[in-house]
Amino acid sequence: MEFSTFGQKFSRHAGITQLMDDLNQGLTAPNTIMLGGGNPAAIPEVLAYLDQQAQQLLKTGELLKAIANYDGPQGKDTFIRALAGLLSRELGWPVGPEHIALTNGSQTAFFYLFNLLAGEFADGRKKKVLFPLAPEYIGYGDSALDENHFVACKPDIRKLDDGLFKYYVDFEQLEVGDDIGLICVSRPTNPTGNVLTDEEIVHLDQIARDKGIPLLIDNAYGTPFPNIIFTDARPFWNDNTILCMSLSKLGLPGVRCGIVVANPTIIQAITNISGIVNLAPGSMGPALTLPMMESGDVIELSNQVIRPFYQAKAQQAVAWLQEAIPLPQFHIHKPEGALFLWLWFEDLPIHCQELYQRLKQQGLLVVPGHYFFPGIEDEDWAHSKQCIRLNYAQPEADVQAGIAILAREILALYGQS
Ligand code: PLP
């Protein structure tokens, strides 16, 4: 069978496909320790709350009503109005329903936005998406219709006390030419747990405005929900910002609900693309979470339950890792948010893909770090081959057992066993 150019590009085994395969394998093979995926933790209070919401919707017939009807291509009206109200009330943003569109997961939104604002233009010009700080989210890397769609800037790497380090945007090296159509960052960042500082965001916003291009902030882990942020980061939005949010990390990855908050021109474009590609986004997630958006319970749940849960888990995992791997070459990115720890093994004697394979053979799944550098063309950059990502938010016994396997392998590699 012959596949088109599109078919060849989108049917290959991308990094994100490997990740989702492993996630599935981890869920089906009973003895695998799954510290690889981006699945949110099963937090009992959150599950109990959602269960109670679902029961209520079943009782009132609202659930059946939601799934027995198509929503419009912009997404469920009642949910969009409630969310606009919540964002205006909580954050003071001038956001109305015309600023919000829903998609089937934010992954779908990235695909629309990356191809809406970059790629080939009618007059023959080509534009790219710029990631000002690599490493960046693995899921962006293959979401473009054409090749060479992304460009990224290496970070300023600063070692901190206590075996930690932090990435900063290297504004001196950052070049934003006329061939850039969109600047994109995740905040907090998957894979590193970095949270761009307020100054960095303001600076990026300024650059984007000067260039007349939007700044996309992927807020999948951010404020006001699920608010998995452990630093004092100011929420940021204006009419040049495209903020992507999601119900996934709140505990609902299965409903596939992404949210785009942007100026009405972008929202109308997303709505029209949604109509062509999907007819309408799914209605389950918006129906299930409508009451918590209206009541503001989603903020309480995020601040009182979700954030403290993840923060405690992150601190615990850092302590276990540092105890198990007491090497000067071992650095952990300062955990400032999201579900992951980003581990850097300086001068690692093997490629992180090989490390991933060795760990997988011993029943531990992590994600090798080299996938997280979309847009970086420097094949010889050692740092990009020395890191792995670990999901710290899985059951304690799994995290401890996983760290034991990792420590054994790493200590042997550095000749310390
Ligand atoms: N953005 C980031 C930074 C993520 O880590 C993820 C999922 O892991 C997503 C977006 C995808 O979210 P969704 O489930 O809404 O497609």
TrEMBL record:
InterPro entries recorded: Aminotransferase_I/II_large, Class-I_PLP-dep_aminotransf, PyrdxlP-dep_Trfase, PyrdxlP-dep_Trfase_major
Pfam family, one: Aminotran_1_2
Example of a GO biological process term: alpha-amino acid metabolic process
Cofactor(s) annotated in UniProt: pyridoxal 5'-phosphate
Domain Aminotransferase class I/classII large span(s) in chain numbering: 65-400
Keyword Lyase attributed: no
Gene name linked to the record: avtA
Cellular component aspect of the GO annotation: cytosol
EC number of the protein: 2.6.1.66
Coiled coil: none
GO molecular function, one term: valine-pyruvate transaminase activity
Keyword terms of this UniProt record: Aminotransferase, Pyridoxal phosphate, Pyruvate, Transferase
Name of the molecule in the record: Valine--pyruvate aminotransferase
Top EC class for this record: transferase
Family annotation (CDD domains): AAT_like
Recorded superkingdom: Bacteria
